[in-house]
Amino acid sequence: MASDISNIVILTGAGISAESGLATFRGPEGLWEGHRVEDVATPEAFSRDPALVQRFYDARRANLATVEPNAAHEALARLDAGWDGELLIVTQNVDDLHERAGANRVLHMHGELNSAWCLECDTRTASPAALLEEPSCPECGEAALRPDIVWFGEMPYGMDAIEQALMDADLFVSIGTSGAVYPAAGFVQTARYRGARTLELNLDPSQGSIFFDESRMGPASELVPAWVD
Ligand code: BV8
Fold this sequence. Notes:
- This protein has 9 helices and 9 strands.
- It is α/β, with parallel strands linked by helices.
- It binds ligand BV8.
């Protein structure tokens, strides 16, 4: 890493978890695990058919327990452990693979599969394996738990911390994201505007590739260790 780099922001998307076996967001015909996004990842979908949405997230939560972090998650964990400067891994992913690889400085801007949110008392709690069967809040007892996931039209978590990190960044690295979802897709422009160097590590060109000083194409399990080590 260049010696004038002190503060790093890393944005990860579904592509970093693809080689662990987790589906990326845009499959064939725009279906995601067989569902259209608007049918499972919006507050309207949850109001319309809560059981469908709970089943969708229960299935992903169950699948997450069967997969492992890959070499890309492990390389970022090594970087996190050994980096003396500022470092923030902002992930759009709702899986826990960064943490299971050993990373600590992780911010889940779109929430987490393993967290549940009580609509009655606003408590966030560790999610039961299957919310459809166990919707009762351990705090207030009401059957009011929903997945603690940021759906479309909802405000992502940690935006103040993310904005501050982008203002201070010397280097912004985007890994495994299509650059299709905002506000995450705009982070590279903020970092660039503030003078950070920008690097993209992705399997394919993304919607934001034009904003990066450098784009390296290939699988994250190869590109990320090569960059970190
Ligand atoms: C908000 C949780 C405001 C769900 C997710 C028009 C213009 C601009 C914005 C909007 C607009 N219309 C609506 C909006 C806003 C909207 C948005 O951006 N829509 C898009 C579709 C246009 N955004 C929102 O609603 C956000 N909220 O704006 O709030 C607000 C303000 C005030 C008050 C209230 C609200 C909230 C967005 C969050 C939605 N939730 N996730 C869940 O996960 O269950 S987003 C969802 O997309 C996933 O989290 C996913 O991570 C994320 C982004 O997708 P990617 O991670 O990039 O995944 P994708 O499959 O697309 O790409 C994978 C990439 O990996 C590919 O490039 C591929 O090449 C690469 N890859 C594959 N394999 C590998 C690889 N790379 C390396 N190695 C490999 N092996």
